[in-house]
Specification:
- The structure is a single chain.
- The chain is mainly alpha-helical.
- The longest helix is centred in the middle third of the chain and has 37 residues.
- The radius of gyration is 26 Å and the shape is elongated.
- The termini are far apart.
- The mean pLDDT is 85.
């Protein structure tokens, strides 16, 4: 009688964990907010870049014989899909060119504020001591100042050009970047990878740029997504008050301001640029939140 062969349990196949890049790609594909927000922002950016090819008319051309033409879904025609304004300018063309101003001011100011605030915050958090005391003092002074009132004052003095708005708003919105990056740098400066970099003789510049900056980039992205949206709203508010972009530039805020006298008779003149501002701001926030979730997904569904 032969002995029965006793077989052990079959070996389970080895499960290979996905790489961080593959995990980020998987999360990005399933993140509805990131997909929607990113798509809208990219679409608006492409519209702004190719505005001369997409706009059916010159946004500055006036035709008083065709003033206040209704959009096509009312009694208008396909020659002016969104109608015309009080000076007979094509509303669709002005809306397309207005995207340029909003994106230039928003991203330009965020670039300046992010650079200034991140440099100040990282230096203060990493070096500590007197450097940090100076940084804290600068942050407290900035937080104590009424930013919007200063912006109103400076714009009224300097003028409402796009360049002036970018510089003024950029140097008035750096404090959030500084506060967050300083806090993160303080937490990271005692970590093992910073100590190891010092032990192998890495310079301070190498440690800050190669070790600290990549670890605070996620926070900078989140702040930038919020600040870009806020700056776009501030620019629209300044233009609405007549202190921002000057006529005949096609700013969305200025378009709303110019349509105030017709809001009860031609409400679409306010609704169209207002919806454009709303959609762009929401999309930027959703894209920023999505990037945060994708690049730092721990603890999030």
């Amino acid at each position: 009688m032969t002995d029965a062969l006793v077989k052990g349990p079959a070996a389970e196949p080895e499960v290979i964990a996905p790489s961080p890049r593959e995990e980020m790609r998987r999360r990005a594909k399933s993140h509805v907010g990131l997909i929607f927000g990113g798509t809208v922002v990219i679409l608006v950016a492409l519209i702004a870049i190719f505005a001369p090819f997409l706009a059916p008319y010159d946004p500055y051309d006036q035709d008083l014989t065709r003033r206040l033409v209704d959009p096509v879904w009312k009694t208008g025609n396909w020659g002016n899909i969104l109608g015309t304004d009080a000076l007979g300018r094509d509303y669709l063309s002005r809306l397309i060119y207005g995207a340029r101003i909003s994106l230039m001011v928003g991203f330009g100011a965020a670039l300046i504020a992010g650079t200034v605030g991140s440099v100040i915050g990282i230096l203060g958090g990493y070096f500590g001591g007197r450097v940090d005391s100076v940084v804290v003092y600068l942050i407290n002074v900035k937080l104590a100042l009424p930013g919007l009132l200063i912006a109103l004052s400076l714009v009224s003095i300097v003028g409402g050009s796009v360049t002036a708005l970018v510089l003024i708003l950029g140097f008035l919105t750096w404090d959030r970047y500084a506060v967050v990056t300083r806090s993160v740098a303080q937490q990271l400066r005692g970590n093992d990878f910073i100590t190891a970099a010092r032990a192998v003789g890495a310079s301070q510049t190498r440690i800050i740029l190669g070790e600290l900056l990549p670890n605070v980039a996620n926070q900078i992205i989140v702040i930038a997504s919020l600040e870009i949206a806020i700056v776009i709203l501030i620019e629209a508010a300044l233009s609405f008050l007549g202190l921002g972009v000057k006529p005949p530039e096609p700013s969305w805020g200025l378009m709303i301001s110019e349509a105030r006298n017709f809001m009860f008779f031609k409400p679409h003149l306010i609704a169209i640029p207002g919806f454009a501002i709303f959609l762009l701001v929401i999309a930027i926030n959703m894209a920023g939140d999505g990037l945060r979730d994708v690049t730092a997904p721990e603890g999030r569904n």
